[in-house]
Amino acid sequence: MRTFVFLLTFHLLQVVVFAQKNWHLQDLKEGNLGISLNRAYKLLEGRKSQPVIVAVIDGGIDTNHVDLKPVLWRNPHEVLNGIDDDGNGYVDDIFGWNFLGNARGENIDNEAYEVTRLYGRLKAKYESLKPEEIKPEDKTEYELFKKVKAEYEEKYTKQKDEYERTLEFYMRFFRAYEALKKYFDKDNFTESEVRTLLRSEIDSLRIYAGNYLILNKNKIKLNDIEKELKNLKKELQTYYNPDTNIRALIGDNPYDINDSIYGNNDVKGPSPGHGTSVAGVIGAVRNNDNDCYGIADNVRIMTLRVVPGADERDKDIALAIRYAVRNGAKIINMSFGKPYSPEKEFVDDAIRLADKHGVLLVHAAGNEGENNDSFPRYPMVFDKNGKRITDLWLNVGATDQYPQNNLVAYFSNYGKQTVDIFAPGVQIYSTSPDNRFNMSNGTSLAAPVVSGVAALIMSYFPELSAREVKEIIMKSSVKFKKLKVLVPTKDVFKGVDYFSNLSVSGGVVNAERAVKLAIKISKKKR
User: Which helix (H) or strand (E) holds 42?
Assistant: First the structure.
């Protein structure tokens, strides 16, 4: 819950712990669970590296950021001239491609959730039908309709209730502020002036004064509540609107994979914050005066924009993977996910192409505090029959800074069969748009930690295959076989389990150990 009612109610209970910048890169010592990056680089002294292309499929990247600009991939076959020089259908794809725009330079910022889109597509067919009227060949789809309808209505109702509570909260304090302005005959008044009204004989003035002081005490501004109201309303109109047709801006058929030539070269887009942070974790410049350091020191980051506010489209994901593979990416980072994938076969075919070309796919496990074995997140490595599509896949959960019982980040998904490995994902310091830097949480940050380590190994040990790199990362991870940890859930921790039971590897990625094992395997191949 994020409303200001919640913030006000629990203000005194909030505890914020600020982690040290770049803790995730520090050595594995004194209880800190960083990836030992400096030690890894010491092992690599004297070795030469070669650039590795890492595709970041995300919501866009600030290509002008001082820490990212030098490490961006640039299409060697394309010139910025308004002509499709390389003949791939994408004009001026210098840094990659934006699948969320059109040729006029317009871009989608917010989309609907996949459950909303599914409900919107299926309700026209099934809403008015009785169960006995469903044709045998439509029963599976009808069951899906009932499921998404129930889920959509629950989410919509929750969102609507939150908007109405926030509106009520806002109006309570708006009336108080307006009444006090009228009473004092000025826009600005001091807290001490308002306190005098607590002794007023007029009931309404005492109430207005009390409400204002509550707001002031918690340092909440009316403008902040108003912004939250606008956000909640926008989400109701987009994320939860089954009748919206935002995709019309692009002009393609999102259900036809062959309709593939669309978009534009604005890979930054209107909201590049998430992708910029992801890119910085992987490869932010390490040798300048800024205090933000990427993991791999010889990467070229390819930018592919497919993730809007809410849920991405399967077709865009598939085409982005194909673009990355065809343009030489060796690693694809995917810090996104959703609970439904109606055009899953598009993505599955793209994953098969990546497998054929030896491309390692790294995916964020998700931030729902759920067991992915029971609650799948897409894209995933298994087809509709449960068969594994590729071995070149790493699904990544998030850990906190210290190997104690709260080692697993409170929000992180997990799964003995479906989450491969964990990596630091709490208060990760990275790049932010407009040459800024910030700390962020999420498996979205844990995944690029693994992508960065993979890129580091591929860069210094080009003779190793993607399969070998994955095995190295898994086998060299730091294990805590006897450590019992709190298991995340959506709201609170629900109990304990052995950390080794929460992923395939049972470990946390470690760069130093990975480099040691890479050296060992590389020697055997000579």
Answer: helix 37-43
Residues 6+ apart with CB under 8 A from 30: none
The DSSP 8-state label assigned to residue 248 in this structure reads: G
May I ask the CATH architecture of the domain 16-108+254-525?
A: 3-Layer(aba) Sandwich (3.40)
CA distances for 237 relative to 269, 339, 388, angstroms: 21, 21, 38
Burial class (CB in 10 A: 0-12, 13-18, 19+), 209: buried
Residue 254: CB partners within 8 Å, gap ≥ 6? Answer: 247, 313, 315, 316, 343
The DSSP line for 457-468 is HHHH-TTS-HHH
CA distance 436 to 65: 8
Q: Give me the residue spans of the domains in the chain.
A: 16-108+254-525, 114-237
Alpha-carbon distance values, 218 to 181, 221, 384 (Å):
20, 9, 50
Residue 16: pLDDT band with limits 50, 70, 90: very low
Question: Which residue type, as a one-letter code, is found at position 27?
Answer: D
Q: What is the pLDDT of residue 494?
A: 66
Whole-angstrom Cα Rg for the chain: 25
Residues making up the chain, counted from first to last: 526
pLDDT of residue 492: 59
* pLDDT band at residue 9 using 50, 70 and 90 as cut-offs: very low
From the list 363, 350, 357, 266, the residue with the least C-alpha distance to 306 is 266
Say if residues 430 and 62 touch (Cβ distance below 8 Å): no
Residue with tokens 């790294």: 362
Coil/strand/helix, residue 98? strand
Question: CA-to-CA distance for 444 and 379, rounded, in angstroms?
Answer: 14
pLDDT, the chain, mean: 93
Structure tokens at 442: 């999420």
Tell me the per-residue pLDDT of 338-394, one tens digit each, with 9 for 90 and over. 999 999 999 999 999 999 999 999 999 999 999 999 999 999 999 999 999 999 999
415, 365 contact by CB (below 8 A): yes
Sequential DSSP letters for 100-167: TB-TTS-B--B---HHHHHHHHHHHHHTT--GGGS-GGGHHHHHHHHHHHHHHHHHHHHHHHHHHHHH
